Structure formats: C-alpha cells, structure tokens
Amino acid sequence: MIRFIHIADAHIDSPLKGLEAHEGAPVDFLRGATRRAFVNLIQLAIDENIDFLVIAGDIYDGDWKDYSTGLFFRGQLARLRDKGVQVYMIAGNHDAASVISKKLSLPDNVHVFSTRTPESMEVEGFPVVIHGRGFPHRAVPENLVVDYPAAVSNKFNIGLLHTSLTGRPGHDIYAPCSETDLRQKGYGYWALGHVHKPEVISQNPWIVFAGNCQGRDVGEVGPRGCRLVTVNDSLEVEHAEWHDLDVVRWQVLEIDLTGVTEESEALSRVTKSMAGAVSEAEGRLVAARIVFTGATPLHGSLHRETHRWHAELLGRAQDQGEEAIWIEQVKVLTSPVYSLAQLAERDALTKIVLETLEEARVEPGNIPNEIKEMLEVLPPEIRNEVEYDWEESQKATAMEDVRAIILDALGTKGGSAT
Question: Whole-prediction pTM value?
Fold first, then answer.
C-alpha cells in the first residue's frame, strides 16, 4: 500500500492587498492564513503517516519580501524529514526560477524538478516514479507535456504539472495541454496545480487539480485543501480522499428578498444564512460577502440607509459568536416591485426624471445637472460620496444608490404603481 498527499498553490505569505480598506477586517489573521493552512498540511501528513508529498507548483506567491517566508517553508519540510517523508515539487508561474531572487537550501528530503527539461525520479523504497518539470519563467505558453516520458512499466507513475489545461475561468493560460495529452502518457495519477478550484477531471486515469490550500478572497469560496491518495498493491488508485486545510472559509451568502416587505424578515433570512455558513465552516472563521437579491419593497431602504443596514448585519454576525464570521462586503442587487413603464406614464415630469436616471446609469461619469440638483435632497452620506472625484466604477456604484433612492420615492409617491 502506498499513500501520498497531493497539494498545490499554497501561495505562502500572499499579501492579500486591500484588506485595510475594509473596516474591522481581521487583517493579521487573514494574512497569516496561508501559513496556518500549510502547517495543517504538514500535521495531516504526519498524522496520516504518509509515504511522500507531491507539490504541483506555486508554493510562494512571488519573490519573498524577506527570508522569513523561505525559512517558514523550510522549517515545515524539516518536520517531514524527521518523520522520513520525502517531498517532490515543481515550480509554478508564481515561484518560477526567474521570479524568486532569494534562495535557501532545502532539507535533504526535498526533491525539486528541473525547470529546463522533464525529469523522472524514483521514490526510494516504493514502486513509484514521478515525472515533472518546473516553470523557468512566469509565462510558459508551450505545452510541456509533449516532452514528458512514457510511463515506466511495473511502476506507479505520477505526473507533476502546473497547467491551465485547455483553460479555466480566472486563470491565465500556462503550459496548456489537453486531457488526451495526459492520458497518452499512461500515468496512474496526474497531480496538477495552477487552478485554485479543486477539481477531479478524471478517475481513469486520475487527473486532479488539488486547488489551493487556503482561499484568499471572495472569488475562492468553499473548502480548500488537499488529496490523500491511496494506491493498492496492484498499483491502482484505491481512493483519493479530500481533506480540508483552510483556516478561513470564504463564502458568498445570497439573500433572496423576493416579496419580503418587513425588515425583520430580511434580517431573519440573513441570520439563517450566516448560521448555516458558520456551521459548515466547522470552527473556521467565515469571511462572507452578503448579496441581497430579488424584487422587494425594501429596495429603496437598502440603498438609502446603507450604514444602518450594514450595522444591523454586523450585529447579526456578532450573534454567531466571537470571531465566527466577518462581513467582507454587502452588495445590494435587489430591484423595485413597481413597474418603471407605468411610472413613466404617470406624468411628463416623472418620465423626464426616469429618462435622466437611465442616462446617468449608462454614463455614470457624466452626472446630469438634473441629478446634481436632486442630490441636494438625498441623505448627506450618499450625497457626499457621489460628489467625490471617484473612479468610473465607483461613480457607477454610487449612481445605483442614487437611482434606487429616487425611484423608490417616485414609486411610493401617491401609491404603488405595480
């Protein structure tokens, strides 16, 4: 029986830029998450008494700020050395040979594959051969697999590769190849890196993206971790078990407010969603983005009273327990319950206002004079924000608030127009 762990994309000491912009963000905890996730990996390897570890690139997030990053990584691998666990690794686009300027020698249980040509390494004491090649530069546009050797007979063959395959959303195209390219090599397991979302491409043979060890933003929701692979005496994969490693669980909590008329009901739905996320996280900090959707009479209030709503949500987060959930952002994507077409038919002035609002929505960089005059009657916090010299994307967001508030006033004036 052979047991090994496959990981990738640890991105140790990833800077997680922009956290300071989020009031109340647990900055230090979030920035230390990649290290703690890697410590979890090493502890899992020791507890499970694995035979070896394979790392499919991007251990680092780029060149080290200082040597502490390298010393941390080295220290963790030394723990495996002391337990007799061998480590096989390749460089990815973030820790390519040309990217990392600082160097430290690694413990003698660590085997790093060449960045010039594919190498094959036998695992001492086991009928296993690992084939791999690291990235010499950040951008590798060519198919590296074509030069990988064919499988060695009477051995369990593992392919170690940092690749985007034929492309994945949110990831640059690096070392592109097809599933067919991988199958043709005859390996029993392809340990892939680069794509951060865990994914099993195939089970015959096993072609697997381990995903990253720790989600780093709201674009990386759900569990993050590694695969613990067991190979039987017939040199076939018996199973590839998933194990969580993350210490912060990113989630998007979509709150459907369709038909909801009371604020208490809206907050009740938020509380229920938060509780579910906290339960699923099993003691990890939940970093959540709350997104309100649906057609609701609360549409105007959500835009008009943003600070109060946000405070209410923070209170509901407190109710989940100390350091159980942190709200990264609140997005309001609701819609009014009234018909804009019917509003436009009410009178000529209302029609002009609606047309002007639509123009402002399409071109938020040019706020019409009519809208500027309307700003004078809006809540100060909204008015002041719109008057700042913002980027176009920020103006667009603010104008959505302005538009919602004015439409809400029009829709409720003289009764509903549904």
Answer: 0.82
